[in-house]
Amino acid sequence: ELSRRTEIIKTTLANQLVDYVSRRTADAWGASQILVSTAPNPAVDQRIFDTIIPSAYDGACLCWGPVDGGQHAAETAWTIMAHLSRGRTISPEIIGHLLDAQRSGGAWPLYFDALPESASSSTYATSLLALTLYDYGHAAKIDSQLKSRIDFAIAQAGAWLFAHRPGKGGRWIDYPESNVRQIASRGLSAF
């Protein structure tokens, strides 16, 4: 009975995925999250990698941005993880851009073009990019210099996140150094 239900759920999700990627409004962020969390489906994967993901790529910033624009760290991270989940390559130049965008204290902003001040340092972006870099460093064949840069960036991100870890209550503040955006987030507790 459990295996029959599992198959029904898998079939339903596969059908919904096909429906999602066939819409013109499908975005790289959502499509990449789906790829990361589902088994390969060659027809769907091909549409996502041939149409949806390239449409959101910004070659000037070596990143992906949401439908409404912007140089978005989370969309870039999810898109890289989608590539890795399907054994696809990501250029070292894109990874170099991620490394260059890290703040001196170890954090990343959610938008790569954010003002270079600590108030825009994001726990969500930092944790997601650290995970992405970890996956890239273990999945890709990379030279030792890039691997060293990745390991250093992950260590810096970990130190920054540790310094900004939640106190009582256990909920992360997405922008812990901001005087304005002090909203606790349940979503970050998964990282």
What report would you give on this structure?
Helices cover 55% and strands 6% of the residues. The protein is mostly helical. The strands form three sheets. A two-stranded antiparallel sheet has the order 1-2. It has a two-stranded antiparallel sheet with strand order 3-4.
Provide the low-confidence segments as ranges.
none
SSE-based structural type:
mainly alpha
Encode the helix/strand succession as letters.
HHHEEHHEEHHEE
Overall helicity: 40-55%
Mean pLDDT across all residues, rounded? 85
Q: How many strand segments? A: 6
Straight-line distance between termini: 33 Å
Give the biggest sheet: 2 strands, antiparallel
Give the CA-based shape.
globular
Radius of gyration: 18 Å
How large is the count of helical segments? 7
Note the beta-strand portion. Answer: 5-15%
